[in-house]
Prior knowledge:
By secondary structure, the protein is of the alpha+beta class.
Amino acid sequence: MRDLRLPLVVTLAVLGVLAESAWLLAQDFDRSPIRYSESTPANAISRLQERLDSGQTKLTHDPAHGYLVSVLKALEIDIDSQTLVFSKSSVQARYISQKTPRAIYFSDDVYLGWPQSGNALEISAVDPQLGAVFYTLDQSPTDNPKFTRQGDACLNCHSAARIGGIPGHIVRSHIVDEGGHVIPSAGIVDVDYTTPLAKRWGGWYVTGTSGAQAHLGNFFARGYQGPDPIDNSAGENVTSLEDRFDVKPYLSPTSDIVALMVMEYQALAENRMTRANFVTRQALDLDQQFPRPAGQEEGTLLPTTIRTIQRAGDELVDALLFVGEAKLTAPIKGVSGFSESFARKGPRDGSGRSLREFDLNQRLFRYPCSYLIYSDSFNQLPTEVRDYVWQQLADILTAEKPPEKFSHLSAGDRQAIVEILRDTIADLPKSFQ
């Protein structure tokens, strides 16, 4: 009988190709081992639905907002997180315009969209094992409200290659016309914490001050042609939206600049965690399908598998430590109270310091290490990538001189971050001690 096993060199080469495929094609997440569509979610929305089904929690409907207020309360999402987007970038686009922007509210693990007069609430929950899971809640009054899980209608945009091919979150900046229609020729920017402010917030209302720092908030083009250059001086340092549309139907009259900045950072960091999760699970699954070189201990990972996992881990480390963050050149100040309510949530170390404290003068946070390090998505990462990320963080934060990529972290920053982590994470790896 012919031996169908590939020679070891060929086998390793094939594994290298497949591991790279796991890296490049994480969007194939409906196959094993992810099985995105088939898997049962375990997130804030699935848990809320369980409480509703058991009668432990009830939702209240009101004529003005449907289930919005009740759902926000049940999910402990602060109203002052509200941001307002007037670009038609939703499946309920017909309800969105400059006069009727869509409101978005968020916490660390849920994003909720409310189109005024819309048929449904739009919800995205951060699931530690599945990434972004999308739901709608019909706004018609009923005795048994049900969150309906959505698939392709959301994934057509929310699993694009530009966000790593995983089910994730997207924050974009568009130039739009008077009707809220995106003008593609004017450019579309995927926004995160590295994006210069001058390119942020096209298609969004923005309340708050940014000094002389230009941005695209509160701006729309007249006609279906984006002006070049854009003069948005009238849209900057806006603290009230009452002269732009009727704010009374909204829970807050604001679209807070600091809330926008946090949401943009958070979306990227959560996507990086999902990518690290998926890539690691896929790489481990592939690793098990190939024979080991003679003499290699059983259970030892192949070098290509290790490199694939480390690559995903390195990208996550960059996001956790704010590598490449766009520098602020003037103070940022919000108007909704979000800055205060977000920072109050802690946890805090023995000196009262927290990773949720803002800077807002030169950068977003006072201590540039992500508050999402406390999240279920981080803590439930596969052991192989989570341990690697922790070791990288320890090496960077405790080094006498870290690599150039992390030079934005001063010695004082690194010492403060380590001290905060020591006091607020019970099972912090020994490498931090």
